[in-house]
Each structure stands twice: as structure tokens, then as C-alpha cells.
Design the sequence.
């Protein structure tokens, strides 16, 4: 899966994502995660949401694309960015919150389960997660990228053993109800 890993594809994604941000999602997260909390962002990409999150939170950005990471580090030399795979989240750091916007749909069902387990391990007690997904059923390969869509009931099945559901709702990204926002609080 080389998309997001090459200069050309990252340039293309940045252009395509212009004018899009997770501002509305972040407003919802703010209702549950207090200001000044530590927050890990998975799949920071161009850094649009990282910038918005950084006004309220102590944000660590991350991505598994070195191409995105190099650009972020050059633009924000004082900030912390980690090279992390969203499945394994291989870090010893602990956080009060974890955020991702349109990232976890690149994981297959098994990888998503593994990621959720890791998220519970790296969250402080009562930690909050906030993730967006493409809404739908099944998976496809788009531009060489694996894309796994989910319905609300499936997400609840995955997250509920570990997270109290604080909010789950559809919202429009490009089309009506094409996306789902999930916010949960760690149970144990
Ligand atoms: C659709 S983009 C979203 C980027 C950003 N969150 C945004 O809203 O613009 C997906 C991002 O997830 C990253 N990504 C894809 N698979 C990943 C994985 N397994 N682990 C970590 N990051 C991943 C890509 O490099 C890319 O930055």
C-alpha cells in the first residue's frame, strides 16, 4: 500500500483534502475531553486537525507515512510526531485521549480489533477516544488502498467491550450520512 507513502500521492491527497477539516468532530470531542489533556492523533496526514486540536490539547501527532511525517516535522519543528502504525500503536507513552479522522478504515477487521486493544492499553483511566469512519458495508480497494466501511452496530460491537459509548452518529463528509463519528470512554 504505497498511496500516502510517495511525494506525488501526498501532494494529491493534500490538494483533495483542501477545505476539509474535522472541526465539527473536534467540537464534539471537547464536550467529553477536558482542555489541556494529552491526546494522540493517529494518521495525522497533512496536519489540519492536528493544528485545530493543538489549541486545546497537548497533541502528539503520528502517522505511518514518513512522507507526511517529514512535512509535519519541517512545518512544526517544536511539536512531537511519532511514526506509528494505527494497528500496533507501538509506543510506551500514555494519553488521556486518542483521535483519528478517516484513518481506521484502512485497517481490516482483525487489525481494527487489535488497534482497539492497544488503545485501551495506552489510555489513562477514563481516557476518551474519538474516531471517524466511512459508513457502509464491506471493504474495497480504492487507489490501491484498502478501505473498510462500517455501520453503527458493527462499531458498537467492536468498541463496547472496552469503551462506554458516549456518542455515535452519522454525518456528511461528501454525501449525506456517508460517515460515522464514534466517541467513547475507556471502561476499565
Ligand atoms: C484519509 S487520510 C486522513 C488524514 C487526516 N487525518 C485528515 O483528516 O486529513 C489517512 C491517513 O492515515 C494514514 N494511515 C493509513 N494507514 C495507516 C496506518 N495503518 N497507521 C497509521 N497511519 C495510517 C495515512 O498516511 C494518512 O495520513
Sequence:
Amino acid at each position: 500500500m504505497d498511496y500516502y507513502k510517495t511525494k506525488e500521492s501526498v501532494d494529491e491527497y493534500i490538494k483533495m483534502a483542501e477545505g476539509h477539516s474535522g472541526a465539527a468532530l473536534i467540537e464534539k470531542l471537547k464536550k467529553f475531553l477536558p482542555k489541556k489533556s494529552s491526546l494522540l492523533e493517529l494518521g495525522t496526514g497533512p496536519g489540519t486537525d492536528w493544528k485545530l486540536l493543538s489549541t486545546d490539547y497537548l497533541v502528539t501527532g503520528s502517522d505511518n507515512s514518513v512522507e507526511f511525517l517529514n512535512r509535519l516535522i519541517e512545518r512544526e519543528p517544536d511539536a512531537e510526531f511519532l511514526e506509528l502504525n494505527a494497528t500496533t500503536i507501538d509506543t510506551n507513552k500514555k494519553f488521556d485521549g486518542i483521535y483519528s479522522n478517516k484513518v481506521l478504515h484502512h485497517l481490516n477487521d482483525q487489525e481494527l480489533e487489535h488497534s482497539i486493544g492497544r488503545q485501551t492499553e495506552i489510555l489513562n483511566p477514563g481516557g476518551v477516544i474519538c474516531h471517524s469512519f466511512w459508513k457502509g458495508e464491506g471493504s474495497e480497494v480504492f487507489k490501491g488502498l484498502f478501505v473498510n466501511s462500517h455501520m453503527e452496530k458493527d462499531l458498537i460491537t467492536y468498541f463496547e467491550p472496552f469503551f462506554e459509548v458516549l456518542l455515535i452518529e452519522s454525518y456528511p463528509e461528501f454525501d449525506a450520512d456517508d460517515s460515522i463519528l464514534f466517541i467513547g470512554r475507556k471502561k476499565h
Notes: Residues 4, 17, 22, 42-43, 45-46, 48-49, 63-65, 68, 85-87, 101-103, 106 surround S-adenosylmethionine (CB under 6 Å). The first strand starts at residue 38 and ends at 41. Strands lie at 38-41, 58-63, 80-83, 95-101, 123-134, 139-142, 145-148, 163-171, 179-186. DSSP finds six helices and nine strands in the chain.
